[in-house]
Write the structure tokens for this entry.
Amino acid sequence: MIPPFEIFYAAHRDEVFRFLGRRLGRERAEDAFQETFLRALRAYPRLEHGDHLRAWVFTIASRIVLDEARRVQPQGELPELATEDGLPAFEDLAPLTDDLPPKERAAVVLRYGYDLGYDEIGAALGSTEQAARQAASAGVRRLRKERQ
Amino acid sequence: MTISASLDERFRAAAAAASLLDVAFDVIPDTPIGPLLVGVTDQGVCRISFDAEPEHNLESLARQYGPRVLRSSKPVERVRRELDEYFAGRRQRFDVEPDVRFLPAYNRLVLEELARVEYGTTTTYGTLAAQTGNPRAARAVGTVMHRNPVPIVLPCHRVIGASGSLTGYAGGLHLKEQLLRLEGAIL
């Protein structure tokens, strides 16, 4: 059961705004905030359940931060995001990480796809920096194992 | 750090302007009959609740109309204005359409008939039952009235017992009496 959007929005608006403020500065954070929740609203009816909504909205916010960073620095000054075939790293990671447990998947994608710090990933997942680090490394170990 | 009230309002307005909401709702805090929660869809007014606590309304609105339920004042403005005019005695008929599409067919039929009961007049449960095909269904009509999602706009307060007693009202009998008095239907 997906909660009414009002409940979801009221629960996460402040921490999403704090996150955007840290990444973009207060002024740009306002537009990014609106864009984050408008995107969430567009996708909301397609959600199949209300689990991990917090990680979900932080994933949207992270993507907007990334878009914004690209817009401001279009000359490829974010080398860790570039890959050989030109696809951004997170698009490569998405299918690769499909089979991971949700928390590990979110941690891996946010860390290696969006280049977030473990403190921010911890905030996004509703846990701690330490737990985010553990989830990401557990995810990576699991991916290595699956590939063998 | 919390978001500013103006950023919050801007998002709520943008969500409505982009037609992304299943239901926009707002609370009118100060009507003569107390606070009212009003919900609207793109098809009309879908909820007027005497229990104006959003938490008591959000789940059922989401279930009936879809999960994108958000407080947003702009879409509710028209209903708010019509209600203001009604309470001020300057409006006898609502122009806003009721949206009761999730109700069973029988409820919709009875409410359609109810919509024809004029300002300042009353009818009885039995009469409405007869007009909708079954004169003995007065009790069923009573249940439909009790579950009317848009009281005032669909005037279930104008339906009284055959003996002339006011019988019942979801918002409390004193409100029914107050509305009928406002309309001059009783002294």
Remarks:
- The CA atoms of residues 7 and 180 of chain B lie 42 Å apart.
- The first strand of chain B starts at residue 23 and ends at 31.
- Chain B touches chain A at residues 1-3, 7-8, 10-11, 14-15, 18, 20-22, 54, 58-59, 61-62, 66-71 (CB under 8 Å).
- Chain B has two domains: 5-87, 105-182.
